[in-house]
Amino acid sequence: QKEVEQDPGPLSVPEGAIVSLNCTYSNSAFQYFMWYRQYSRKGPELLMYTYSSGNKEDGRFTAQVDKSSKYISLFIRDSQPSDSATYLCAMKDTGRRALTFGSGTRLQVQP
Amino acid sequence: GAVVSQHPSWVICKSGTSVKIECRSLDFQATTMFWYRQFPKQSLMLMATSNEGSKATYEQGVEKDKFLINHASLTLSTLTVTSAHPEDSSFYICSASQALGDSPLHFGNGTRLTVT
Question: What does each C-alpha distance from B25 to B68, B77, B103 come to in angstroms?
């Protein structure tokens, strides 16, 4: 079993839709949770960074963490074609500075 | 915001030659940098952790004599792929964090290596 599970997609939605991306994890030591966006042939770009259960909002993006269920989500409101990319969840524990990534979900927003 | 610069963005080399990839933190000091490898449509896999002034720590299965890492300063780490083979063709990405503790990692734009 992988430490971090993420549905690879692809996920195709119409412009303006609300997108929900999810990851589950098995390692209860993970305390820090991140979402990255990666365009083709580019490095990952940090979108959200959280370290506590609950919601964190930044513009059209909301990150949600449920440590009791070992489940994290990223919501994208009013999705745009420019949001089309691969979204990677990542997490780490306090004893290790490197990240453990999910496999990434490919999102396609249709105009 | 924290910026990590990686160079070159792409490189083609012949089998048996060596290739050096640079990773720089432009506006902050990074005591630790990380090197990842990504195959097409797959996630990032950690190769090694690069610590300034000391030897790198390699993940299991990564050949340290093939992937030489040097972290000579607080803003520069290099990855040298020695005696490259076609199976080394991949997307190599570095990352760094601003300080000790739990600040988030920022990534370079990656280097696409093609070995012919």
Answer: 19, 9, 14
At A39, list the tokens.
């365009």
- Higher pLDDT: B12 or A98? It is B12
* Best A34, A42, A93, A103 residue to mutate vs chain B (most B CBs within 10 Å): A42
Which tens digits make up the pLDDT trace of A25-50?
999 999 999 999 999 889 999 999 99
Asked, as a colleague might, if the bond just before A8 is cis with ω within 30 of 0, I would say no
How confident is the model over A73-111, as pLDDT tens digits?
A: 999 999 999 999 999 999 988 777 788 999 999 999 999
Task: Kindly state whether A102 is in contact with chain B, defined as any CB-CB distance less than 8 angstroms.
Answer: yes
With b meaning 16 or more CB within 10 Å and e meaning fewer, what string describes A28-67? eebbbbbbbbbeeebbbebbbbbbeeeeeeeeebbbbbeb
For residue A82, give the 3-state DSSP assignment. Answer: helix
* Residue B88, amino acid: D
